[in-house]
Amino acid sequence: MPLKPSKIIIIGLILMMIFPLFSGCIEDEGQQNHLPEVTIIYPDYNEFVASIVKITGLATDKDGDRQITLVEIKINGSDWVAAEGTNEWSYDWNTFTYSDGKAMIYVRAYDGKDYSEIVELPVQIQNPEISETDEHKWAVFVFAGNYPSDNESKLGNGGLVLAEEMASFLVEEYDYPTSNIFILFDDGWVRSDNGYGQRIETLQQRVHEYDFHYSGATGENLDTVLHHVVDEASHQTDSEVFLWFAGHGAGDQNNRWTGGKIMERSTLFLWDDTLSDRELGDKLYSLRAEKTTIIVDACFSGGFADRTIYDFPTFFLLHSRITGPGRVVMTGASKFRSGFASTTRGPLFSFLWFEGLKSGDADGFQPGFLSIGKPPGLFTRRDRQVSVEEAFYYARYILREDEELDPYQSMEPQINDQYPNWGNMRSKDGLIL
Length: 433
Known about the structure:
Layout lengths: L4 H27 L5 E6 L5 E2 L2 E9 L9 E6 L5 E2 L1 E2 L2 E7 L6 E10 L8 E7 L11 E8 L13 H17 L6 E5 L3 E3 L7 E4 L10 E3 L3 H15 L6 E8 L19 E3 L4 E3 H7 L7 E7 L29 E5 L9 E2 L3 E2 H12 L28 H14 L12 E5 L15
Parallel strand pairs: 2-9, 10-11, 10-15, 11-14, 15-18, 18-19
Antiparallel strand pairs: 1-3, 3-7, 4-5, 4-8, 6-7, 8-9, 12-13, 16-17, 19-22, 20-21
């Protein structure tokens, strides 16, 4: 039946009122989401980069009703991978796997609905092939101590300060090439309030005296750096390697006798992972270097030197495989004892060891009973060269004799000296850097 004109008019008026409502909803839905925006803060346009580069940036969402849910990054033609963080984001890029020359960094942000425009940044990769000196020497410093979730256990920025001081000393006094020195600290960021505050800048953005390689003390970064150093050093007959690890160690501080470590391995905490003595031994298994100095300064760390306490060896099934001919391995504490660190000056044993080395005061120090360290006697020969072993015995002696350090005597630093050879064939001459 045909509709009457009056009904057609009424229906038309209703549709005219309803349609704009639906129309408006559809139109608003299509316009309400603005594309997110993303920017790259570091590195700069066409900047020269090398080693492990911490790429950083910001991402924002204009609408306010959606947060940035994801930031993705890719290098050249690689696949997109997720960066760490959202509004403030970062990504550790290993340039060792890329050829020198121009590379393009691509970044995009996602707000849960739309991706941002892709931001492109050209950089120049220039990994060092020839060192600044002819010396075949490499050094790695690793310190992770400022976990964001627990202020009570933070170790401050003292480990970074000490690492840079030791690295500079190796450059100035022993001709270590700066291009062969790596410093891995926390997550690659420096925090205010001596490590207790907020992230303020990356290690690479800081003003520092020497152009060392900086990155975060993560498991992946450590694998990358150690693989590079082991491979490079093993190709040189006169190579020298210096490795320093410090931070938190795993153990039971309420167990005053053994720390709960009788049948457990010594373990060091990285920023996002752990490193047991055997795992480090596996990473260094193929290292062939004429001289290797290894210091692990953490609580319950004696297992890294295959020592328990009072210079006694660990059970053979728990050997680390770190020790060996040509290597001197030292730990800041025994396997059964806690270590100590200053939040501004770094781990105590390493600080004392370095003081004895750089001042020359450790010259002539000897092992003494159970390697507790004794000063040079009246007829002791001093050669004006401090070996890494002499610096160890100096540090142990100072720990025992300095009244101000009485609360820390229980640390019991340990040493396993197999330079240049193991057993009776080992020379009495120490390892001189």
